[in-house]
Amino acid sequence: MVETKEPTTTDAASTNRSDANWAKPVDRLSAAGVTGAKDDAVTGKRVSGPLQGFGQLWQKTFSVRLEGVDTTPEAVIATWKAHFADFWPKSQRFYAPLSGIQPGEVGLLEIQPLPGAPVKLSTGVLVLYADDESFTFMTPEGHTLSAWITFSARRDGDVVLAQAQALERPSDPFDEIAYKLGGNRQNNRFWEATLRNLAIMVGVPLPVVDVQVTCIDSSRQWRYWRNIRNSATVRSARRTMTAPIRRITRRG
Amino acid sequence: MSATVIELDQAGPASILRISGDITSGSEADLSAAYGRAVANGASAIILDFSRLEYMNSGGIGLLVTLLVRAQRSGGRLVATGLSDHYRQIFELTRLDEAIQIVDDEDAAVLAATA
């Protein structure tokens, strides 16, 4: 049966090797206990990664070299975890889990799906993985993107390099259209700004963020068009439009 | 810290990638090269043998997704075998098990890959 044997090797970079770095298996998410945002767009949902999305699959890598800063990858990731929400652009909100960014915890988000959109989208993320040099979020059903995003730091020669790498597909046909109409560009600007804010906080006066975007799979997964039934965008739009009626009903 | 070692075996129309050590984002070049050699050998299915896997982080799982997409685009398929209970759970948690068939042993993997 064995015909060829051609070993190749790679030096592993990670020094953090514990099973506890991974989230425990969970069928449905619960965001109960996270304060500041509505959790009903997340609680009861399953996670949805890049394999379960509808649109084209993109890999995006945002990186910044922390030039002139005496730090370590572990220190950068500790800062990133502790101040994650502070690095976000002001129009978007992240509500961290009470116990911080730990495997299995759920954070809530309020984001603007498109520039100038009148609707704020309520959704969240599962902390899929976290160690001393990286952490990874996975999106729930209904999020505009079916994605994983990994935040990491590593040494690159004498300099520490901080990086955010996303593997993402728009979740449903509407999300794919919104992505093409500006959601993609807004998403890129968002993570560029986040990396820039992180670099400034750790002491880089004029950080330069490198962006690499690759379409991994240009086809669309039509079998997932029904993801639209979980859409947090539709849910948030409905909530916004019916808010006046709810207010009147409560008064009456 | 443990190096990644990938050995390539052939089982009829399927290639077996025997993975030892750690799979992290740093394994990308070697995993991609091993996959490329398997495809160049004419493999229509790839069996990923994780029985000697020591550790995999989220970067490693991401590599498997890109490998899976490459396989699907070329009409091939991926089958996984030798996963510990922990990594089976990770495949289920990340819903990778919906796209990569998981089987208990190599014979079952060859059968699944050539079915």
What does this entry look like structurally?
The complex is a heterodimer of chains A (252) and B (115). Chain A has helices at 73-82, 173-202, 232-251, and strands at residues 8-10, 57-65, 93-95, 106-111, 121-130, 134-138, 145-156, 159-170, 209-217. Chain A has 252 residues and is an alpha+beta fold. The radius of gyration of chain A is 19 Å and the shape is globular. Chain A has one domain (27-243): START domain (Alpha-D-Glucose-1,6-Bisphosphate, Chain A, domain 4). An eight-stranded antiparallel sheet of chain A has the order 3-4-5-6-7-8-2-9. Chain A starts with 7 loop residues before the first strand and ends with a helix. Chain A contains three helices and nine strands; from the N terminus they run E-E-H-E-E-E-E-E-E-H-E-H. Mean pLDDT of chain A is 87; it is low at 9-15. Chain B has helices at residues 28-40, 58-73, 85-93, 106-114; strands spanning 4-11, 14-23, 45-56, 77-81, 101-103. The mean pLDDT of chain B is 92. In chain B, helix 3 links the parallel strand 4 (77-81) and strand 5 (101-103). Chain B is an alpha/beta fold. Strand 1 of chain A pairs antiparallel with strand 1 (4-11) of chain B, so a sheet runs across the interface.
